TrEMBL record:
Transmembrane segments annotated in the record for this chain: none
UniProt region (Disordered), positions on chain: 1-37
Taxonomy, superkingdom: Eukaryota
Keyword Nucleotide-binding set for record: no
Alphabetized UniProt keyword annotations: TPR repeat
Pfam annotation, one family: TPR_8
Organism listed in the record: Theileria orientalis strain Shintoku
TPR repeats: 123-156
Identification of the protein by name: Uncharacterized protein
PANTHER family referenced in this protein's UniProt entry, alphabetically: TETRATRICOPEPTIDE REPEAT PROTEIN 1 (PTHR46014)
Zinc-finger listed as a keyword: no
């Protein structure tokens, strides 16, 4: 028995397939065993985590994102003493989608991280967290998450998705990865320059106590060996 899933877009969909068998991607195979949450009827009761999850999904489709967050949170609370990590990871990822829709990127990142704690091969969680990292200008982390998602599902390199929240990027993940790589490299260089500047300030502060500065030391690279020589100059 299965509940059909809505189209799998990175941001504006939620997991709608709590009980299904052998989907197209292993990371979203959400088989539930009766032993995980008690008797079968408990799975669908009005106080069960699956009932709360479905209520959350309904609210999400109606764009009642804050109410959906409440339902997903209630479902997670019901799972507190359960070992059903698959359902737990889906709930965190669904709630992250709500936070994304509300523009709360830090909360989305946090929930995606929690989802990955329970399912480290959850492609959709990596994609959502990548998008959230990008929104916070954390391009290195965004690129890393996208690379991880592509390593888990290489077919994403060749499948087009419409990311309505990043309209200025190509919809193809292969192109997006290259663009994120450039942003990530630029971010790294900026951070490196800032760190070097701080180290220079620290060095000058220490050397200033004895009347010197880093300007008194000249660094030269030996082109033959690749090593560096430091020379003192007045």
């Amino acid at each position: 028995m299965g509940i059909e899933e809505v189209p799998d877009l990175p941001q504006n969909t939620v997991e709608d397939d709590a009980i299904k068998f052998h989907t197209s991607t292993p990371t979203e195979d959400t088989n539930l065993d009766d032993s995980e949450l008690g008797k079968t009827e408990d799975l669908f009761g009005s106080s069960s985590p699956l009932f709360f999850k479905e209520k959350g999904n309904d609210c999400y489709r109606d764009k009642n994102f804050r109410e959906a967050i409440d339902w997903y949170t209630r479902a997670l609370t019901r799972l507190e003493f359960s070992d059903n990590d698959v359902l737990r990871s889906q709930l965190f990822c669904n709630r992250a989608a709500c936070y994304q829709a509300l523009g709360d990127w830090e909360a989305a990142i946090s929930d995606c991280t929690d989802a990955l704690c329970f399912d480290e091969a959850y492609t959709k969680a990596y994609l959502r967290r990548s998008a959230a990292f990008e929104k916070t200008n954390s391009y290195q982390k965004s690129h890393s998450d996208l690379e991880k998602a592509l390593s888990l599902d290489p077919s994403l390199e060749y499948v087009s998705f419409y990311l309505h929240f990043i309209t200025f990027f190509s919809p193809k993940y292969s192109t997006k990865k290259a663009q994120l790589k450039k942003l990530a490299d630029a971010e790294f260089e900026s951070e490196k320059e800032q760190m070097i500047g701080k180290l220079k300030d620290l060095g000058n502060n220490l050397l200033g106590k004895i009347g010197l500065s880093l300007d008194n030391f000249k660094v030269q690279k030996n082109p033959e060996t690749g090593s560096y020589n430091i020379q003192f100059q007045q």
